[in-house]
Amino acid sequence: MIKHMLTSAVFAGFAAGLLAALLHFAFVQKLILLGEGYETGVLVHFNGVATSGSLNGHDHTAISVADAAAPATTEAATATQADGHSHEHEAVEEGSALTRNAWTSLFFGAGYVGYALLLVAGYGLAEAFGKRVTLREGLLWGIAGYAALQLAPAMGLEPELPGTMAADLTARQIWWLGTAICTAGGLGLLGYGKGVASVIGAVLLLAIPHVIGAPELDSYSGVAPPELASAFAARSLAVGLIVWSALGALSGWFWSRPQ
Prior knowledge:
By secondary structure, the chain is mainly α.
């Protein structure tokens, strides 16, 4: 049983981690790099103030991201070429990007193997009570895992882009953990509980973290544009749903195969 759990989790987790890395590079990483640019001051928000005229394309006072980055890029390129180090600079940048992408892929692989271990442990517990988990049930478990670990916490603590402000880290971690546990417990009662008491208990567990409320800032500020932060949050949640669904389906399929 333990060997079956480990093999199911490793295969499903690494496959889901690879999918997560590909989707991250395609849809999310660009936004993170832009956020880091604002966080470090390479890019500056509020270079111009948008007006009704600018929204109609008649105001040229606002500076775009590309325009803001272009002068710095041009000056850096001129300086490097003057010193004869342009090729070395490009090589260092390419090496750094490759290293970053490799570590990101490894992180996703290891992370989703851990999530898969949680899922297959649940499958084993469900099987002990006579509930057989296959690909279809695994898909539902994956969606439930997404709801518990990403969607429900995001209702109070949205995915954070670099350059945005956030409340105290310890308070956020405590609230996130409590929300994940309560949501998982509530969904478990809805899925496997019986009777009115189970439904009432599930509703209470799902509601408690949001009644308490996530830690909030006294005032809002930050250097990254809110439009960029909202796009990052939306894409992160969409990618999470896809990957968790794949993780649940794959782990359920591996689990249901003969040992």
